[in-house]
Amino acid sequence: MGFSNMLGKWIAEKAEKNKIKVLQDVIDKLNKALDAIAESENACLKDAAIELKNSREFGGRYESSKTNLFYSKL
């Protein structure tokens, strides 16, 4: 009986280690996805900053022309 009890514990521990490994893999994939989203958000923020800078340089004419083009396509 002692051997079967040890075998049962070993199988249970192995299953737990496999679950932990799977969870670690999922967490790694989620972290990679979050990194990709963060990069995309940073690119959008940079584009918005450039548009804001351009609109300030041109006294608002740049911004209003882009807005008019946007609404004319609707």
| Mean of residue pLDDT values | 79
Total number of distinct structural domains: 1
The number of distinct helices, counting runs of at least 4 residues, comes to 2
Q: What amount of the residues lies in strands? A: under 5%
N-to-C series of helices and strands = HH
Radius of gyration: 28 Å
Rough outline:
rod-shaped
Q: Structural class of the helices, strands and pairings? A: mainly alpha
Structure in words:
This protein has 74 residues and is mostly helical. The protein has one domain (2-73). 93% of the residues lie in helices and 0% in strands. It is built from 2 helices and no strands. It has helices spanning 2-57, 61-73. It is rod-shaped. The N and C termini lie far apart (77 Å). The relative contact order is 0.05. The mean pLDDT is 79.
